[in-house]
Specification:
Rossmann fold
Length: about 240
């Protein structure tokens, strides 16, 4: 898998940056390298990269601050890189905005595999939406998804979703009335077999309900099915005829 849009590598260690870019080039990716956290944010604006590989410890500002600033205007996939194992819980938190993480020391093969997996997940979340907005009899009028910007809008107002929340809601929207197990939803989020409790899905659903409610999204329900998972339900009054 490759993309015409570059991978933005934000890494201040020249040796590591060179290793990553060389390996990405071997797999037909183009890259842009940046070594400062302050420079990363404007580069995302100008380059519109396919993905950002963002080191946690950077000069200028750390990767966490850069990630949060990027999330204020972009849904670009972000993989955080850290040498500090104790930071993993923070990076997996709901408010950081990162999609995945890798820990140093790592193999470049692993990083490329993570990049490909994340890009596939993003593409996979968008594919069902194409059918849902064209030929699906359950397509939604007032709740709409934009695959290019990775946003979901209610009455043309984008919801403030993280990329993980976007993918979860997009998947649920693609098959209204279908019950997705927590495990299935977790598999859609993470394909690397990481040891993450499926109860993290409950937290994401809670946040989605809160954000939909704050937007006034009436007639949209993320219904809990006891002991199984969740389904997306639409009030018939807001469906297309």
């Amino acid at each position: 898998m490759s993309t015409l849009r570059p991978i933005l590598v934000v890494e201040d260690d020249v040796r590591i940056a060179d290793m990553l870019t060389n390996y990405l080039h071997m797999h037909d990716f183009t890259t842009v390298v940046c070594g400062n956290g302050l420079e990363a944010v404007p580069l995302v604006r100008t380059l519109n990269p396919a993905l950002v590989l963002l080191d946690l410890m950077l000069p200028g500002q750390d990767g966490l601050a850069a990630c949060q600033q990027i999330r204020a205007f972009s849904g670009v996939p972000i993989i955080m890189v850290t040498a500090r194992v104790d930071e993993i819980d923070r990076l997996l938190g709901l408010d950081t905005g990162a999609d995945d993480y890798v820990c140093k020391p790592f193999s470049p093969r692993e990083v490329v595999a993570r990049i490909k997996a994340l890009l596939r997940r993003v593409d996979g979340a968008l594919q069902p939406l194409a059918g849902a907005t064209r030929g699906n009899p359950h397509r939604v009028v007032r709740l709409k998804a934009n695959g290019d910007s990775m946003t979901i809008s209610w009455d043309q107002c984008p919801l403030p979703l993280t990329p993980v929340e976007f993918r979860l809601l997009a998947l649920l929207m693609s098959r209204p009335g279908t019950v997705f197990s927590r495990a299935a939803l977790l598999d859609h989020m993470h394909t690397d077999l990481r040891d993450v409790s499926d109860r993290v899905i409950d937290s994401h659903i809670k946040n989605l309900r809160r954000k939909l409610g704050a937007a006034g999204a009436c007639g949209i329900n993320l219904t809990s099915v006891y002991g199984v998972g969740y389904r997306f339900e639409i009030d018939e009054t807001i469906q297309n005829e």
